[in-house]
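Thought: the user wants the 3D structure for the chain below. I'll pass the sequence to the structure tool as-is, report back what it returns, then summarize two notable features.
Action: structure_tool
Action Input:
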Amino acid sequence: MTNSQLWFRGVRPSKFRHVYGLPTRKECCYTDISVVRSGNDGNFCATNPTFLAIVADTTFVVIPINQTGRIDFQCCKVIGHTGQILDLKWNPFDDNMIASASDDCTIKLWKIPEGGLTSNLSECSTELVGHKRKVLHIEWHPTAANVLISAGFDHLICVWDVGNAEKPLLNVINCHVDMIYSLAINRDGSLIATTSKDKKLRVIEPRSGIVVSEGICHMGTKCSKAVFLDNDRILTTGFSRHSDRQYAVWNQHDLKKPLVQEVIDSSSGVVTPYFDYDTKMIYLAGKGDGNIRYYELVDEAPYVYYLNQFLSGQPQKALGFMPKRGVNVSQCEVFRFYKLHAAGNICEPISMIVPRKSTLFQSDLYPDTLADIPAIGAKEWFQGRNVQPMLRSMKTGESILDTSTSQKPRSNESKYATIHHTSSKHNVLNNHHGNYNGNSNNHSHSNGTNNGPALNGSNYTNGTSVTSLTNGGKNNKENEIDNRKFDNNTKKFAFLSQPTIPDYRPQAVTNIIEKSQKTSTNQSTKFHQLQAIFGQHQTANHKDIANLQNNLLSSSRNSSRNSSLENINLLNSENELRKAFNKQAEEIKSLRKSLNNSEKRVRELEAEVKRLQLQQKH
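Observation:
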């Protein structure tokens, strides 16, 4: 390698090198909101594709996401807590359920009605009491239904099953000796990470409370934060011994030394990291800062590449972010923040956009993302089972079952998988018309009991009425018509996207070839029809089939007696068709055999992994 090659390595290629932040016009912001004035570093803003929640001291407001502009100061609020609210989190599987952690040592779950609040909400659906001092952080489990994890000022971490009214507390973890600064959970919910005032980063197994690994993360005494990345890595933000702001990347199995550690600047605001799993981008936003830095993560050193920063003249008090299923794909929006201004009662949406000229769906920017359907129940998860989260397509809104983690659904999982498959077809049509909603309410008009999950907004019951059947038939017809339109448009676009190849052959040769192709196509169609009719009956008479084929050939000969060339083409096409059919049948057999072998190999590997895990535990 020459000196010139060492000196100039070129520009690193990246799809996100030119990502920029787009602020929102004032008329599209949420203004005149009574924002909390506390100096805590809590999560004061939470959002999902339906609602926006903002803390206002001991209460919080819930605003429909499309209701922008000036918010009435006398708007309806959630007023159930007696102390200051320190954290808010929406349920990832229910857009109408939100959890709030408060200074009054309680966690409360609230059910927001469809369309938003029409009066002050003072009665919670569930109250979780277990912490002895104020609750600082809460996190929903990303794959298990009704599992909530909380961290309090009493140095305890509690694991809750909010669906169990009699005994909601599953586990209490008391491995911390000082104040817990942050709480994070990995993608499948098998591990949690915490940072605390004793300067340590801990990786904990939440069901058993075992500390998997721990180590000193940042030498400064100020608040530090942590977030899980992909490929068993963790990113932390904190302060150095000289009060410089830092970020560091760690291997979650070895916290003795960071993979990389860099200084950000010398400001004093606490930096909070936000990780986008789909784009592998990390956003760092400091409290009191007017900018948001963003980086791209890679699998090899130096692991983190600086991209750019969003600059603003207004400092931020807190940030909320929209789940990926709520971003605008037509504008190539890959992330969206909701910024609470430190000065002024304003909440401003900020869109992170990849500049593209086309308005069509960009598949390289939007891989399958987290769906709003749980992959497992709380009981199964607490018994030790880990699964990857359910995914959904960003293009159609259809949920996708991740078959790489499990073979067949069992007990509670089978229920979730059934709901997942039945609702996906309905979501495709709704998203095609732009009316997709994460949670649809199912209504039943019969007196029977439910036998299964809801389909197309109606429940199947033992005593189904005639009117519900007729309405269901109309809905099915409308869905079939929409499906046909959608398929026709897809075929049109596929045809138009094909390249045009000019034909320079003489006209006579072209006519002969086209004529023979049409004849062979007609013959192949008739042969397939005969196969579809007689292939289902195993006891079919081979002589009758041969007679039908002979009649077919004779009829074709009678229809084309004037051309001997066409007769030869007919015989050739018939023989080629039989050869192709036999070849395809052999390929299908070989593919089935290879599929069975691969499934057998997967089962053997899973058994081996379980055996190794048991050995590690012992």
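Final Answer: Structure generated. Helices lie at 3-7, 378-382, 412-432, 466-496, 507-534, 542-559, 564-617. Residues 436 and 463 are 30 Å apart (CA to CA).
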